Amino acid sequence: MIPLRDSIPSRRFPVVNTLLIVANVLVFLFEVSMGPQALNRFIVVFGAVPARFWAVGGPAAWLTIFTSMFLHGGWLHLLSNMLALYIFGDNVEDRMGHGRYLVFYLLGGVLAGLAHLIAYAPSEIPTVGASGAIAAILGAYLVLYPRSRVLTLIFVFIFVQVIEIPAVVYLGFWFLSQLLSGSLALAANTFQGGGVAWWAHIGGFVGGAVLVRLFTLGRRSRGYDPYDYYRG
């Protein structure tokens, strides 16, 4: 399933969300400007490596949780993450406000990173990507806008359909798929195989869903009720 847009219009320009997208794109362009060997060293240094994190510790190790949020492993990795951030992040920023949203995004990324570091503690494979922080945004979106709708591109064998799916169904299915995949990955002991950081997604989503109310305290929606506004 590929999300195309949601049904909740943003009342304010999403300054922070836009800057986060720009920052991720600029960092990735810097990555692709490197040669293969330099890029590999760059990823190893600034990616979050579970075994190194637990062995070394200290500020430098914690810093890699933040730096890894802005690194990506390829164009598809970047574009899929930025599409999700673009669709769901603006509404969460709208409800929280710019400053709170930035803190929430970074904190969500930290929680997601820690979930991966704990689940894959022996791994020496660097972890990169914004998907953990974005998963926190998805968890917050589910709590704030469960009755929103997500216009979704669905592939069924050779058939392609575009349908509107309730956010609670779309995000619920997404979370359950991450939980199933993450459980299977742990059962298979895929610590050194690379791949998708399922537990970063799970940790980020749960952390975002739990913390969102704290970050929206005192910020009630004004004007229309976004729960009841759908754009066809």
General description of the model:
The structure is a single chain. The chain has 232 residues and is mainly alpha-helical. The protein has one domain (2-215): Up-down Bundle (Rhomboid-like fold). It is 62% helix and 9% strand. The protein has 9 helices and 3 strands. It has helices at 15-32, 36-46, 50-56, 58-68, 75-96, 98-119, 131-144, 167-187, 198-215; strands at 2-6, 149-156, 159-166. A hairpin with a 2-residue loop joins β2 (149-156) and β3 (159-166). The longest helix has 22 residues, at 75-96. It is globular, with a radius of gyration of 18 Å. The chain starts with a strand and ends in a 17-residue tail after the last helix. The model is unreliable at 222-232 (pLDDT under 50).
Q: Which H/E pattern describes the elements?
A: EHHHHHHHEEHH
Q: Give the count of helical stretches.
A: 9
Q: Poorly predicted ranges (pLDDT <50, ≥5 residues)?
A: 222-232
Q: Approximately what portion of the residues adopt beta-strand conformation?
A: 5-15%
Shape: globular
